[in-house]
Structures are given as structure tokens and as C-alpha cells.
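Researcher: If only I could read C-alpha cells as easily as an amino acid sequence. Walk me, if you will, through where the backbone shape changes along the chain. I have put the entry right below:
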Amino acid sequence: MSTVQGLKSKVLNGGILLTLRSLVAAVLSLVSVIVIARILGLKNYGIATVSIGIIYFLTWTCRLGLHTHLVRDRELPDDGPRQVLSFYHALGFLLCSILWLAAPLAGKFTGQIEVTHALRALLPVVWLDLVGMVSISMLERNLRFGEVGLIESVSQLGNCVISIALVFAGASYWGPIIGTVFQYTLQTILACRLYPVSWRWGWDWKFLKPALRFGLAYSGADWIANCKSLRISVLVSGIAGIEAAGIVGMANRFADQMSMLRLVVRRMSISVMSKFVEDPDAARAAVSRGMIYQAMLVGPVCAGFSCVAVWVIPAVFGSEWVLSAKIFPLFALATLGSSLFDLHAAVLHAAGRNADVAKGNLLYVSVLWVGGIILLPVFGLWGYGVSELLALPSYQLLHRLFTKTYGSPEYRPAFWVSAAAVPPMIASIFLSPVPAMVIFLLSYALLFLMNGGIRENLRELNLFARKKPREVSPGPDAPVAEVNAGAGA
């Protein structure tokens, strides 16, 4: 088998396994949310949402980008993972000590002392995430996405079981808090078993300095992007209260779950795109094709759920959650629009152009926060949802930064796939589920009848999904010149 076909097969097979296991994790997560949110109610669910949201932000940003350096460094030394692990242990201890002292600030800001206690209980997650990410990054470097999916599915299952059991036992918001700590503990154990990395104290600054130089540049862009996630914990809870944070958190949670396959593509993107950054034609072709797949994976699911959300969410969670269902289409539209530019950022990151990604993220997040600050006090949670849509035009900057080096991707196919999702999403805000679903069916029927290229893309996805795993030969460091020919596949 050729190197090109071997790499393509490894990526496709790993991607399919990661997708299937992520689907399992998504189902488990939804079951957990259904049970926990219904029992806890708005206030206690809001406390859990705010606390866990802050910790997720910290885990994403405290990695300092070193996990991504492990994935993309084409000349990674053999002891590189060990050095990063040693550094992460020291960093984890320092961060947890500082955050323990700073936790009361979050409680005072939200007006809920329970948030302080919850944050302190969640602090081990920051350390565990750092340790586990070394092994997970090396699995991704070797394109072993199936094993990454296994780790995350099993740990998610552990979270669901523990959280639901404790909530039923009367532990209130402590159920999801303890479940989250258990999830990251199990995730770290499994990752270290599947890709062991030896550890001893000390690291070589000759390796770590350039790694941190790249990592901090990458993290700078990542920090800015992740400020979006803090809007619920900081902006909504501060302006509209802890119950409103629970309502928005629910709508946002469903948007994430409905677009779960987008997250799979984004998760694989740095590992795969790093093979193509030296060939502008290959990178541009990969982004053009990737946008179509993102629109196909995100649009129909989000649009379909938008049509029935006002039935499903109140029926499952109770009438007090109905506003989450009504504002969900705004989150879904924003998620669909953002997904089209995931691969632009991935290529720029893989090429080391982290400053360009940071510029795009800064504009996007600035519009989000300013829009939320202005609209939330005036229009309530509807204003918060509209601010998500107002930020989408800011992706024009990311397009221009990508185009400078790689040329403009082909947007038309992805545009038509995305456009099919817009009418049912908009209709679901104003119409009942039945006419909204009729519009959904008509919209996608017209898309498939009038666009033969979309039908061909669907057949291609079907062939990929039915393809049996095969033995492959190339490793993660296969020469880019040998694999560029397959970039558009």
C-alpha cells in the first residue's frame, strides 16, 4: 500500500472510530443532563454549570499549548513527552495552590458561596488534565484517534454513572462536581496505560523554551477563543443571575451535543493538517472539502432539533426550562456558522501562524462580549443569543488571513449546505414544531434535488463509514511531500 493511501486509511479509520465513540459519549452526556437538570432545578444546575464552566476554561488555557507542540513538532526528541510531563507536574501544583486562594472571588462575584466550595473541589481536574494530555497528545500524534475516543467514552460513562447516582442519593450539585473529578481521574489513568510516559523530575530548557514559545503563541489564540465559554459563568450569572446561567448553559449544552461531529473533525484537524501546510493547493483543497463536511455534519442535526426543541426540552426537563428551547435555534445558527471556519484556524495553527489565529479570535470574542454586555440587560437571554449571531461576520478576518498564504477556499458548496439549515431554524423560533419540520424537509429536499455535488459528497461519506479498517504503514512523521497528493481527499 502506498504511503498516501496508508495515511488516508489511517485518518479515515481513526476518524470513524473516534466519531462512533464520541456518539456514545454524547448520548451518555445527554442522559446525564436530562436526569441531573430535572432533579437539581435551575439554581443548583446553575451552580454546577458556572463552576464546571470555569474549570473547563482553566483546563483549556493552563496547558500553555505544549500538548499541541507534542502533536505538530516534526522533530520531537524521544524524551520530549517526558520533559513536558515533568513541567506539567510542577505547573499543576503551582496552579492548584493559586486557584485555591482565588476561588472565593468567584463566589463573591456570583453571589453564591457554593461556587467557591465547588471550585475548590474541582481543582484536581486542572492537574489531572495536564498529566493526561501528554499521553493523549502522543496518541493523536500517531493518529490513534480510536484509542482517544475510547478513553473519552469510558471516562464520560464514569462521570454519568457517578453523577446520576449521587444526585439520586441527594447530593445536589455535588453530584456533577464529583462526577467531573472522577471523569478526569479515569481519563488520566486510561491515557497513561495506553501511552505510558516515564516521569522524573527535571527538564531541558533547550527543548522546553522553543516548545513554550510555540505553545504560548498557540495558547494566546486559544485563551482568547475560550473567553467565549466564560460568558455564561461571568457575564450571564453576573447580569441575569444564576438561574439564567442554567438556562443558557442548557441551550449551549444542546448546541454542543447536536454539533458533536464538528468537534471530532476539529479534534483531528491539527494532527492531519500539519501534513499539508507546506502545499497551499493541498491545504486549500482540504479546507474547501472540510467545510462541506462540517456543514453536512452540523446543519441537519441542529436544524432538526431546533424544530422539536420546544416539545422535547420542556417535556424532559420541565416547563421552567422552556426558554432554553426557544433560544436554542440562535445558538445552533451560531454553531453552524462557526464550524465552517474551524479548519482555517487549524491550518494556520499547524503552520505556526498563531498570531493570525489570535487576531481572528480577538475580533470574534470582542464582538461576542460587547454584544452580550449591550443586549443582555435590554433584551434578556434573547439578546445574549442574538449577540452570538452578530459575531459571525468577524470570521471575515480569519478568511483574509488564510487567503494571504493559501488562496481562497471554495465556499459555494458549503454555503448551500448551510443555507438549507437556516429556514427551519428561523421558522422554529416563530412556528410550532409541525410546520417547522415541514420547512425542514422541504429545505433539504430542494438541496439534494438541485445539487448533484452534495449527493456525491453523501455517497463518499457513506463509503468512508462502510470502509473496513486496514493495516497501514506510515507514521505521524511521514514526509509531507509524500502525502500532499491526498490532501483533497
